[in-house]
Structures are given as C-alpha cells and as structure tokens.
Specification:
By secondary structure, this protein is of the alpha+beta class. The chain contains 7 helices and 8 strands; from the N terminus they run H-H-H-H-H-H-E-H-E-E-E-E-E-E-E. The protein has an 8-stranded antiparallel beta barrel. A hairpin with a 2-residue loop joins strand 4 and strand 5.
C-alpha cells in the first residue's frame, strides 16, 4: 500500500504525463530568416530614401523602375511617395501608373453640411460613383472607361493634366467633369462639377443649372 502523500498524487499523474509528452521545444532561432529580414528592411529603406532624393530625376527614375517590379509593398510605397510631395511630374507619372494597374476606382462624393437644392439632388443622383474599365493611352495620356453611380452610367472620356486629371462624365441632362486637383499620399481629391439642363434643372428636380461636389478617392 502506498503512503498517503503518494496515493494523493495518483489522480494527477496522467494529466502531468500528457502535458509532458505534448510539450514541444521552442523553435530554434533561424539565422537565415533573420538575415533575410534584415536585407528586406535595408532594401525598403534604400528605396524610401531614393524616392525622397533631392533630385527630381532620381525620384522619377526610381519610381518608374519600382513600378516595373511585382513587389506590392514597393509599388505601394512608390505611389504613396509620388502623391505625397509637390513634384507635379512625379504626380503625373504616379497617376499614369495608377490608371495602368487599377481596373476601377471608388469615388466618395461628399455632400456639404448645408447643401443647395442642386447639390443635394446631384448628390442623390451621382452618389456611389465608381470608375470602371479604366485605361490610359500612355502616348497621349488620354483616359477612357465607364462610370456607374446610384442613378447614372455611361462612358468616361478625359485626359491627364499637370499633376491631376479632368474626366468627362455625361449622361441625360447632366454634363459633368470629375477634376482631380489635390493628392495626399493615399488620398486623391477634387470636385465633380456638373452643368444641368432640360427638365432636370426645374424646381421640382435639381432646381438649378449647376452643381459642384467635392470628392475623395482612398487608395488604401
């Protein structure tokens, strides 16, 4: 017969044994992975520094080379850098690359706090605006595609401008231009300016022949 102290331990022995058998040693430190991480960090820092170089030519050349690569982190860094500074050539190059690789862009129209009747009606018609099937002719910087909103759809015709774009969105009694004028890293901003004609301009609809709404496009 076992002494009482040992007998008391018997019920816990299977659990303790199971925990001991199931315990796995901590993975050994992987020196190769650590060195690869250091190399990756050094590359990211190098590209980031080159994208912030004092020379506009260096910044532009580095961005163009990065955008040829398949690395999504580097490409995202390059676009954000292109849109963060005040270099209009880099802005234009970044937008050209964006339109080459993005099939669609979601446009967030912003309704003013106290909208006029034309603004409120235009927001109702044009909210949920999406630019789809985007394409750019890199020789002429002409932009094409389609747009869809809550109550409108149709073709897009437009052009890159110096550091921005001007796209025509025309349908029914609305003739609008989506004008991009400001870039802020991962945000593109501007305004939707519309001429309103025909019965849509009557008091029981837009109640005016012009409306403008600010917009924002978030890239991440």
């Amino acid at each position: 017969m076992l002494p009482k102290p040992f007998a008391a331990l018997l019920p816990t022995l299977p659990l303790a044994l199971a925990l001991t058998l199931n315990a796995t040693p901590a993975p050994a430190f992987d020196q190769n992975r650590f060195e690869a991480a250091q190399e990756r960090a050094a590359l990211l820092d190098q590209v980031r520094n080159l994208l912030a170089d004092e020379s506009a030519s260096v910044r532009l050349a580095v961005m163009e080379e990065v955008m040829k690569d398949d690395d999504p982190v580097l490409r995202s860094m390059a676009l954000e850098a292109a849109f963060s500074g005040d270099d209009e050539r880099l802005h234009t190059a970044g937008l050209r690359q964006l339109l080459k690789e993005r099939d669609f862009l979601a446009v967030e129209l912003i309704e003013p706090m106290d909208p006029s009747q034309p603004q409120a009606y235009t927001y109702h018609v044009w909210r949920e605006l999406m630019l789809t099937d985007l394409a750019i002719d890199t020789d002429t910087d002409q932009v094409s595609g389609y747009f869809n909103s809550a109550n409108m759809n149709g073709p897009i015709m437009g052009q890159l401008t110096r550091g921005g774009w001007r796209l025509q969105l025309k349908r029914g009694h609305y003739n609008c231009h989506l004008t991009l004028t400001e870039l802020g890293g991962v945000d593109l901003m501007g305004s939707l300016n519309c001429a309103i004609t025909g019965s849509t301009a009557n008091d029981d609809h837009a109640g005016g022949n012009r409306a403008a709404l600010p917009f924002r496009i978030r890239l991440s």
